[in-house]
Amino acid sequence: MDAFILQLLNGLDKGSAYALIALGLTLIFGTLGVVNFAHGALFMIGAFCSVTLSRILTLSYETVDETQKDFLGNPLVVKTPYVEKWFGPETGAAIIDWAVPLAILFAIPVMIFVGYVMERGLIKHFYKRPHADQILVTFGLAIVLQEVIKYFYGANPIPTPAPGAFTGSFDFGVLLGFDPNAIIYPYWRLVYFFFAGIVISAVFGFLQFTTFGMVVRAGMADRETVGLLGINIDKRFTIMFGIAAAVAGLAGVMYTPINSPNYHMGMDFLVLSFVVVVVGGMGSLPGAVLAGFMLGILESFASMNWIKDIVPGIDQIIIYLVAIIILLTRPRGLMGRKGVMED
């Protein structure tokens, strides 16, 4: 039972990332009808927003400390971060320590701007083009963004630690009545799961309970009719593209302590996120979230050693096997609208 619960937690952790990325993908496809193969790159850019803020906060100036000597007897050169000079040693050190959560505030405007430029500068010219053209141009854009990140940040992963308060592990088993140390789980992975829940709830609440969101949902169902009512639905859809980019970026920001950012991390998640969207149903937001968590849990359980002993390599293909089975029996996905992907 303890192994079952641990794998369930691992699945929820993976599913959180899949669900957040797939949610943004589905927002774009549902509003604009665009198959955006650059969405994984948005996840990557969000992760590097965290890296960038960490580097900014650790910018330092040098001073000579006469009271300390190096091994040659010379006065020691000490580097002091500017934030410690401005806010004091304790506050400055706390700001640096909490760089990843603070990167949320930094990433939101950056990602909205990147999404706006991407949609207005490139993708809007492919609205009425075949999906194959959209895939080619957005995949090419993803490669360009990947190479830009590689040029400025290098090819090696960049460790970005979580705040010190969340670097340990939580004895989850004690809460459930197990022996101490039976189920140990990292604090930050639990934080990521709850953060994903907050973001997903915020997106659904925004679409469900605000006038803007209601108009967007109406436009997703019948774009022409909404336009005839005098509403500039194209402008609202552009804003939704920015919001979808922000969702992907926030997923990347908070994922950095779990997986050190590297230039190809967007591609690593891209294919999986599209499988999640197709399984959930193209254009279905609840389907994307459901499929994200479901496939994350299945992948986690498939990685158990005794299962891999029975079916070697099953953890690498389980998501695709499930996708094949679902699409053969229900082409529109779990919660897709009737007629979508069925003709």
UniProtKB/TrEMBL annotation:
<dbReference type="GO" id="GO:0022857">
    <property type="term" value="F:transmembrane transporter activity"/>
</dbReference>
<protein>
    <submittedName>
        <fullName>Branched-chain amino acid ABC transporter permease</fullName>
    </submittedName>
</protein>
<dbReference type="InterPro" id="IPR052157">
    <property type="entry name" value="BCAA_transport_permease"/>
</dbReference>
<feature type="transmembrane region" description="Helical">
    <location>
        <begin position="16"/>
        <end position="35"/>
    </location>
</feature>
<keyword id="KW-0472">Membrane</keyword>
<feature type="transmembrane region" description="Helical">
    <location>
        <begin position="190"/>
        <end position="216"/>
    </location>
</feature>
<feature type="transmembrane region" description="Helical">
    <location>
        <begin position="95"/>
        <end position="114"/>
    </location>
</feature>
<feature type="transmembrane region" description="Helical">
    <location>
        <begin position="310"/>
        <end position="328"/>
    </location>
</feature>
<keyword id="KW-0029">Amino-acid transport</keyword>
<keyword id="KW-0812">Transmembrane</keyword>
<feature type="transmembrane region" description="Helical">
    <location>
        <begin position="270"/>
        <end position="298"/>
    </location>
</feature>
<keyword id="KW-1133">Transmembrane helix</keyword>
<dbReference type="GO" id="GO:0006865">
    <property type="term" value="P:amino acid transport"/>
</dbReference>
<feature type="transmembrane region" description="Helical">
    <location>
        <begin position="42"/>
        <end position="61"/>
    </location>
</feature>
<dbReference type="InterPro" id="IPR001851">
    <property type="entry name" value="ABC_transp_permease"/>
</dbReference>
<feature type="transmembrane region" description="Helical">
    <location>
        <begin position="237"/>
        <end position="258"/>
    </location>
</feature>
<keyword id="KW-0813">Transport</keyword>
<dbReference type="Pfam" id="PF02653">
    <property type="entry name" value="BPD_transp_2"/>
</dbReference>
<keyword id="KW-1003">Cell membrane</keyword>
<dbReference type="GO" id="GO:0005886">
    <property type="term" value="C:plasma membrane"/>
</dbReference>
<comment type="similarity">
    <text>Belongs to the binding-protein-dependent transport system permease family. LivHM subfamily.</text>
</comment>
